[in-house]
Design brief:
It is a single chain. The termini are far apart. This protein has strands at 3-7, 10-13, 18-25, 32-39, 46-51, 58-60, 68-73, 78-83, 92-100, 115-116, 120-125. By secondary structure, it is an all-beta fold. β4 and β5 form a beta hairpin. It is built from no helices and eleven strands.
């Protein structure tokens, strides 16, 4: 089992920045591919970004490309999502997810992930 705990929720103005963190425990972190998803009120959960086990590959949704950066620190068992130039449409609950043992890439579909965090709220005001 893998436990994922997100942090970094906040309220920011449009154009601002926020960094989310997701701390993992329970399995060797370097064996996990990690991803971020988000769900806005009344909408389906959507893919945001993913990072490979090695950290050498990343993949982003078109809506966040160039504004968001996913990274990982295996020494801290943590994955980050740096969000810059935030827009009101980025408002959502953000979820961290982990995938164990697969070989697909990119991992941009929620059913490809095995473990999920509880979510953290990001609100961007106009």
């Amino acid at each position: 089992q893998v436990q994922l705990v997100e942090s970094g929720e906040g309220l920011v103005q449009a154009g601002g920045s926020l960094r989310l963190s997701c701390a993992a425990s329970g399995r060797t972190f370097s064996n996990l591919a990690m991803g971020w998803f988000r769900q806005a009120p009344g909408k389906e959960r959507e893919f945001v970004a993913t990072i490979s086990r090695s950290g050498g590959n990343t993949y982003y949704a078109d809506s966040v490309k160039g504004r968001f950066t996913i990274s990982r620190d295996d020494a801290e068992n943590t994955v980050y999502l740096q969000m810059n130039s935030l827009r009101p449409e980025d408002t959502a609950v953000y979820y961290c997810a982990a995938e164990w043992g697969g070989s697909s890439w990119p991992l941009n579909r929620d059913y490809e992930y095995d473990y999920w965090g509880q979510g953290t709220q990001v609100t961007v005001s106009s």
